[in-house]
Amino acid sequence: MNEKIYFIFIRYKIRYSHNKLKKYLSETMAILGLVGKPNVGKSTLFNAMTEKAVDIANYPFTTINPNVGISYITTPCPCKELNLKCNPQNSKCIDGIRHIPVEVVDVAGLVPEAHKGKGMGNKFLDDLRQADAFVLVVDASGKTDLEGNPTENHDPVEDVKFLLKELDMWIYGILSKNWDKLARRGQQQKNIVKIIAEQLSGLNISEEDVKSAINTLSLDENPQRWREEDLQNLAGTLRKISKPMIIAANKADHPDAMENIKRLKEEFKDYIVIPTSAEIELALRRAEKAGLIKYDRVKNDFEIVSDSLNEAQRNALEYIREYLKKYGSTGVQEVLNRAYFDLLDMIVVYPVEDENKYSDKKGNVLPDSFLVKKGTTARDLAYMIHTEIGDKFIYAIDARKKMRVGADYQLKDGDIIKIVSAK
Ligand SMILES: Nc1nc2c(ncn2[C@@H]2O[C@H](COP(=O)(O)OP(=O)(O)OP(=O)(O)O)[C@@H](O)[C@H]2O)c(=O)[nH]1
Ligand SMILES: [Mg+2]
């Protein structure tokens, strides 16, 4: 799917299945991309996150076309602390936990040399263009080889290494296209940062990112003097800056996974490595949907609420309970939350129209929760709500403290904010 059609595809899906979320998502639009070699559990993780039912199978390339879905990150809702009953409009509140929608993309698996087109790799890499952060999914059980075929004792550290290289080479391929011409123009016009950002704009890479990567590497002022190695380093640095990544060590329920997870954590100290069992999370969510259990996502435990379970279902649930006791959780929600809160450095704020009732004009208490970048100001938030409100911004009110704040006030996680604008 080319980029334009893919983008329309995403919009189409959101417009028709999540009409209410559309405006909000188009404002924030931080997309999480699930990336990894074939057969590691990307689609299982996607289904667990989105409660969709895309194909899952124990062979490579089950997924060919990207799957796009809505998942939720979770954070304590202020309704609890303020002892209020909230009526969320753009999100959900379950037992005092706010669930905020985010977008997740599951793509086909990547094999070594994907950037050269192996296994249709260049097409699949293209499907990741718009992602703002990646979840690098690996098979921690070591039961799949580099191409996703069943094997024994495969080292998932190798998978992370080759995947990082493929992503770097993918960016390098786009960056180095017509390089001599670009470097000459950049030198003549003294605007290489802008030229590179334009070349990489389809990858969601900004001028800021380019500037910061060039500074980090202390590259020569004259881009015509940059060697191939410099360009490769630039691609790698840009990947690190613009596509932050978390590692999901999946299939953690397998007995062989523990040892591999330890090694992944030791080898990739700069990355957040989270053991996950997509399969167990999916089983829990489906059991809950079928009315068999109540899944307590705070305590990471469940209660059986149906008396029509058969012996096999009971045994499976007991196995899951043991797993949760041993590992604390399935790791799936942690991947989502840490991707947005830690990798993308986002916070949650609650715009209201009545600072005393914490509500909108219709009386909905804490109606909206916005996921925004740390550093977002009161005026930025006004613009996210509506251009006109941004243009006519006068001041804002911190509803908890009933205190006025100015346009440049940097929002804090959990802030409840009223924007006051000229009529
Ligand atoms: N034990 C275990 N198996 C899992 C887990 N997650 C996925 N699997 C199994 O791994 C196999 C591959 O799962 P998929 O979700 O299709 O993997 P994928 O990465 O999307 O594969 P491709 O689309 O082919 O790239 C299936 O047999 C899943 O049941 C897990 O957490 N634990
Ligand atoms: Mg798949």
Automatic annotation (TrEMBL):
PROSITE patterns, A to Z: G_OBG (PS51710), TGS (PS51880)
A Gene Ontology cellular-component term: cytoplasm
Species whose genome carries this gene: Methanofervidicoccus abyssi
Pfam families (UniProt xref): MMR_HSR1, TGS, YGR210-like_G4
InterPro entries in the cross-refs: Beta-grasp_dom_sf, G_OBG, GTP-bd, P-loop_NTPase, TGS, TGS-like, YGR210-like_G4
All residue ranges annotated as the OBG-type G domain in the record: 30-296
Membership in a protein family: Belongs to the RelA/SpoT family.
PANTHER family: OBG GTPASE FAMILY, OBG-TYPE G DOMAIN-CONTAINING PROTEIN
Keyword terms, alphabetized: GTP-binding, Nucleotide-binding
Domain of life according to the entry: Archaea
GO molecular function: ATP hydrolysis activity; GTP binding
Protein name from the UniProt record: Ribosome-binding ATPase
Record domain TGS: where: 345-421
